[in-house]
TrEMBL record:
SUPFAM superfamilies: S-adenosyl-L-methionine-dependent methyltransferases. Transmembrane segments: none annotated. This is Class I SAM-dependent methyltransferase. InterPro entries: Methyltransf_11, Methyltransf_Superfamily, SAM-dependent_MTases_sf. The keyword Repeat does not apply. One of its GO terms (molecular function) is methyltransferase activity. Residues 54-148 form the Methyltransferase type domain. It comes from Rhodococcus gannanensis. The keyword Nuclease does not apply. Keywords: Methyltransferase, Transferase. GO terms for biological process: methylation. It holds the Pfam family Methyltransf_11.
Length: 243
């Protein structure tokens, strides 16, 4: 069990946090990775400098400018139509960056057209995401990498709140799924830093049910939380080795 019920094939997975509260999700994205450790780890496991990268389930495109700093091209793909215009507004005027409507199961990209396929807390939640893995392998060039970032519910207080909020979520089952699909795993702990306690409370309120959110708020004495992430990577075959 992953704790998430998958919708019928072809329909996006409901993401209440960003669908219903995009402004608070923006506050959350700004708070995340305050020490840069997650992006540093990502760059170490899969560099995108000078390469073509797709961000699958890009939401309002928050991470596209970071990729655009040194990628050759950046494509954000998002299935929820209301999020596409804000994502396009964010990257307006950035050369080589675009946002397309589409989903992990049907990427609007040609075969073998990108070097890195990235997804952060989007679609790839474990069992059931096989169609998206196959689709990513289709669009990756030989030797390219699919990199999936999700939250590590085994780490710290944030992990404990996740498990309390999603009692059927089984982090070990998700890891076994990715391992069986040929992914490598890197763990990172990153700091979320909020400007004030109002922002902290609002973000906890879109991530957890009211009971867990209120308890979590009481357990954070200041403005920061350590949050564990998992980085799952799988390389596309690099082609025939002759000899
Ligand atoms: C929690 S948000 C994360 C957004 C973005 N990756 C970020 O970190 O800011 C999850 C995103 O996945 C998208 N999503 C849902 N179903 C999807 C699918 N089948 N394929 C691709 N993305 C999907 C949602 O619409 C939403 O934008």
């Amino acid at each position: 069990m992953t704790g998430r019920r998958r919708p019928p094939p072809g329909e996006p997975i409901p993401s209440p946090n960003i669908w219903q509260w995009p402004q608070i999700y923006e506050v959350e994205n700004r708070a995340q990775d305050a020490d840069g450790s997650l992006f540093a780890a990502l760059r170490e496991v899969v560099g995108w400098a000078g390469r073509d990268i797709v961000d699958i389930g890009c939401g309002t495109g928050f991470h596209l400018p970071e990729f655009a700093r040194d990628a050759r091209s950046v494509t954000g793909v998002e299935p929820h139509p209301p999020l596409v215009p804000p994502a396009r507004d964010r990257i307006a005027g950035m050369p080589g960056v675009r946002v397309l409507e589409g989903s992990a199961e049907h990427l609007p990209l040609p075969d073998r057209s990108v070097d890195v396929a990235h997804a952060r807390t989007a679609y790839f939640f474990g069992p059931g995401c096989g169609p998206g893995i196959s689709e990513a392998m289709r669009v990756l060039r030989p030797g390219g990498t699919l990199v999936v970032v999700d939250l590590d519910a085994t780490v710290g207080e944030y992990g404990e709140w996740m498990r309390a909020d999603l009692p059927h979520y089984d982090p070990a089952a998700v890891e076994s799924f990715f391992a069986a699909q040929g992914f490598d795993l890197t763990r990172v702990v990153s700091r979320w830093e909020f400007p004030d306690r109002r922002a902290l409370r609002a973000v906890l309120g879109i991530e957890f049910g009211p009971r867990v959110a209120e308890r979590a708020f009481g357990q954070v004495p200041g403005l920061s939380i350590d949050v564990g992430y998992r980085i799952h990577t799988r390389r596309a075959p690099s082609g025939l080795v002759l000899g």
